[in-house]
Every structure is written in C-alpha cells, then in structure tokens.
C-alpha cells in the first residue's frame, strides 16, 4: 500500500509549479523581518521540544495560508507559546511581507489530475489539499497548506492537535478530528509518509530558502 501511495504522489508532483498571483507583501522586507525565524525554520533537522517533532518547512507555502497562520498565532487561536511570542509584535504589514518572502515569486499551484489516481485513503484530504498535496483551484479561505514534501512527523502532530481540540480553526467543514477518528491509524500513517516523500517541482522542499 505504501508503494502505491508514494508512486502516486511522486509521479504527479513533477509538474506542480505554474504561474500564479504575487503576494501582497514585499518579499525583500519580509526576508529581513524573518530573521528571528531562522533559529527554528532555517536549520535543517531542527526539532520542536515537548512535544518532539520536526519544525515545519515553510518555503513555497501559499502566502494566504502563511498570513492566516501567523494571525492565528498572534491572537492565540492557534496555540504555540514560542510562535505566539514571535507573532505578537508583528503588524499586519509585517505578516504580509514575511508571507511574501516565504512563498517566493511564484506560488505553488495545483497540477493536473493525478495519474495514477489517488488511493482511497486520501479521499478526505483531496477536497482541500488536492490529489498531489499541492492544493486545489477553489478559492478556499483560509488557504489550506501545501502538504507535499512536508515532514511526516509534523503532519502527524498537526492532525493530533485537531483530534485533541487544541487546534479548532479550519473553515472548510469536516477536518482533522472527525476525519482522524474514522481513518485507521495505519492508513493515516501511510498517507502522511507518502505526502512527506512527494517533491515540489521535482525537488524536495527546503527548510526555508
């Protein structure tokens, strides 16, 4: 089953980048404002402590998702003490600039339908995250994150926080907790491992830049 999932994602992610709208912020200013973020997100294999999991890869995330995430950290609706401390001093413009820098000049856009088709274990995820883990064309608000190339243990931690109620905000209907309870743990782990192996534009995603 794992080979089917990895073959599906790896075979479709090679053509994942296309032209898209630029972020509203200034990426040059965002690079300077992001300097404190390098301590966690600019170090390869950096891990969060208590609980222990890999710090998420941020490069090529859609700017709209990054803006929403930083705003939630700032107002406390997305709990993480370190991120709240970092985001609490950011203005709306600071957040837009940082998001523009991390997204890069061209945001990741969905590819053509996957070949082979996504396995059934991915069905609850595809509506928002797409068959390739790169999102969908629908104008969802907030924008869902790119999953392809992300650390598998970070994805598992994110699902766990939806399941236990620490993360409540989603906006796309059924998510996290409900889907997590129905999906067998083994199938969920296989899907997340496959997502982590999927490259972006033929390359594995870098930690930040």
Structure summarized in a few sentences:
This protein is mainly alpha-helical and 209 residues long. It contains ten helices and two strands; from the N terminus they run αααββααααααα.
Overview of this structure, please?
The chain is mainly alpha-helical and 209 residues long. The protein has one domain: Cytochrome c-like domain (Cytochrome Bc1 Complex, Chain D, domain 2, Orthogonal Bundle). Helix content is 44%, strand content 2%. The protein contains ten helices and two strands; from the N terminus they run H-H-H-E-E-H-H-H-H-H-H-H. A two-stranded antiparallel ribbon has the order 1-2. Helix 4 runs antiparallel to helix 6. The longest helix is centred in the first third of the chain and has 13 residues. The N terminus is likely disordered.
Radius of gyration: 16 Å
Our measurement of the CA-to-CA distance between the termini, rounded to an integer number of angstroms, reads 33 Å
Looking at CATH, the homologous superfamily is Cytochrome c-like domain
Strand order of the largest sheet: 1-2
Largest sheet: 2 strands, antiparallel
The CATH C-level class name: Mainly Alpha
Given the helix and strand composition, which structural class is it? Answer: mainly alpha
CATH fold node name: Cytochrome Bc1 Complex, Chain D, domain 2
Q: Shape from CA axes? A: globular
Catalogue the unreliable spans. Answer: 1-22, 176-186
